[in-house]
Amino acid sequence: MSGGISVVVLQTERLTLSPCQPGDCADFVALERDPEVMRYLNGGRPVDRAQSGPDSLFLMPDGTEPHLWTGRRKDSGDFVGWFCLWRDSDTQAELGYRLRRSAWGQGLATEGAAALVNWGFTGAGYEKILSTTMTVNHGSRRVLEKLGFTHARTVSVDWPDPFPGTEQGEVWYELRRADWKG
Q1: Under 8 Å CB-to-CB from 178, ≥6 apart: which residues?
Q2: For site-directed labelling of 66, which of 21, 22, 91, 154 has its Cα 20 to 30 A away?
Q3: Structural domain boundaries of the chain?
Q4: CATH superfamily entry for domain 10-179
Q5: pLDDT digits over 92-113, tens only?
Q6: What is the pTM of this model?
Q7: What radius of gyration do the chain's Cα atoms show?
Q8: H helices within the chain, ranges in order?
């Protein structure tokens, strides 16, 4: 990460979160090809990386991002998904994650995201961490609420290619270090 912050390997009970590598790109692309994984990002449409540029509405990592961790199961090494803590400034970052469908409903998103939040406040020195999701993405909202994030605002977004749920906008959540119960 820029600003002198070293991204480290993080361990949880069931996951190893390692700084991403170019060799992880095939797993990242496989996530983008799953319509259910992409449902709240683009309505579940197939992603054509050749047609998507740096101004895409969502992150399409290639394994070179300094703020992104690849999540793998400790016991098997199986790819679970990716987690990011995108540095907005010296004091603020944005949390994001994308998991394989086979990893849903097991608490792995909460577990991996909690590790990044902990590192963000204790290792990177952030004062505030933000996260956004679609209003209708109840699973992701539950993850954030379990971590102690609070709803800050709901915003209307002018989607270039709307899909069901976009009319309800996006929700912004935040967690301040002073309110964190890590």
Answers
A1: 127
A2: 154
A3: 10-179
A4: Gcn5-related N-acetyltransferase (GNAT) (3.40.630.30)
A5: 999 999 999 999 999 999 999 9
A6: 0.90
A7: 16
A8: 25-33, 39-42, 108-122, 138-146
